[in-house]
Amino acid sequence: RLDEAEPYFVKAWEMSQDHEIAAHYGELLWRLGQQQKAREIWDIGYESTPESDKIRDTIQRLTNS
Hints:
The structure is a single chain. By secondary structure, the protein is mainly α. The protein has one domain (about 1-65): Serine Threonine Protein Phosphatase 5, Tetratricopeptide repeat, CATH 1.25.40. Helix content is about 80%, strand content about 0%. Helix 1 (about 1-15) runs antiparallel to helix 2 (about 20-30), helix 2 runs antiparallel to helix 3 and helix 2 runs parallel beside helix 4 (about 55-65). It is globular and about 30 Å long. The relative contact order is 0.18.
């Protein structure tokens, strides 16, 4: 089911490279086994809003599990 969600995240990401979208899209990619792509998305999202805890919390949760 996760792979069915990917096109929606791609579309959202194309519309806005927002930190919230980056956090969720990156998590989806991570769970699909695309860790490198997830990190790239998180980096872009973090650059746009470095004060956001959302991306940092998502990365910590996924990489410490």
